[in-house]
Design brief:
This protein is mainly alpha-helical. It has two domains: about 35 residues; about 240 residues, no CATH class. Helices cover about 75% and strands about 0% of the residues. The longest helix has about 30 residues. It is globular, with a radius of gyration of 23 Å.
Length: about 280
């Protein structure tokens, strides 16, 4: 066996540099071809950036006066969007840490139940989000003299509406990673951004095409950012929007938990818990 490996190494060294480079490129092309999340990621970022900034540009061109009246609406939008992003990423990263350390199989044979694991991941997501967004909020005060805390009690409702939505997304992303392996881990970073253009983070939902608006209002985030602008510009609390937020959050969280528990059961049945490669 040693002689065979030695001969193989010698043969590789005798090949030309272009052959060796081509072999390595071919290896990664095969990896790319066999992983739909990687292919999706290549198309995803340019498309989302184009749509999002196209909408922002269109809005700023037609509603520049609104931006002047909005005060810190754009900064508030950035900070609240980060609650959704950091919350989902925080949940999924804790799950990924267990996969990276090959500890997931041990957890599932321990006394801890899957639903208890979900609760622990949610708590860690909350802690990570508070640290990250809290620090950014303080920096916004120091650099731009804008405090998101001036929104008062509605800010608490917005925060928890977004963090619960982030948990639902984190559960679905974790389930996909558990099902398809670490080749799908890039979903943890880019899937949530698909919702940014239709969440109205930086512009009202009315800017979107008419046929997109019902899709947008099926998301809790769209109601939250509409409610945020109502507080900042009109100085009113839209309780109707908040009611929709928590009804949608409850539905999506139930779906997320169900999807995750189903993925766990399938992984156990198929012996996937110890097969977490790409």
């Amino acid at each position: 066996m040693i002689d065979h490996d030695h001969r193989h190494t010698v043969e590789l060294r005798r090949t030309g540099p272009l052959t060796r480079i081509g072999a390595l490129v071919l290896r990664h092309l095969y990896l790319l071809r066999g992983s739909w999340p990687r292919l999706l990621e290549l198309i995803y970022w340019p498309t989302v950036q184009m749509i999002l900034w196209g909408m922002i540009t269109q809005f700023l061109v037609t509603e520049s006066v609104w931006v002047q009246q909005a005060g810190g609406a754009l900064i508030a939008g950035v900070l609240l969007w980060d609650v959704l992003f950091r919350g989902q990423l925080g949940f999924t990263l804790v799950f990924l840490e267990e996969m990276w350390s090959r500890n997931l199989g041990h957890l599932f044979v321990s006394p801890i139940r899957p639903i208890e694991m979900v609760a622990a991941f949610m708590l860690m997501s909350l802690i990570r989000t508070l640290i990250g967004v809290g620090g950014a909020s303080v920096i916004a005060i120091l650099l731009y003299h804008y405090s998101i805390f001036d929104m008062g009690l509605p800010l608490i409702a917005f925060f928890f509406g977004l963090i619960v939505m982030s948990w639902a997304l984190g559960l679905v992303v974790s389930a996909l990673i558990l099902r398809f392996g670490l080749g799908a881990e890039s979903l943890a970073w880019f899937l949530v951004f698909a919702l940014a253009p239709i969440s109205g983070v930086y512009y009202p939902i009315s800017v979107l095409p008419d046929w997109v608006e019902p899709i947008a209002f099926a998301l809790p985030s769209a109601h939250i950012f509409e409610g945020m602008r109502a507080v900042l510009i009109d100085h009113v609390v839209r309780w109707d929007l908040l009611r929709h937020v928590f009804l949608l959050d409850a539905a999506y969280l139930v779906i997320g938990v169900a999807v995750f528990l189903l993925a766990v059961r399938i992984a156990r049945q198929r012996g996937l818990l110890h097969q977490v490669g790409e």
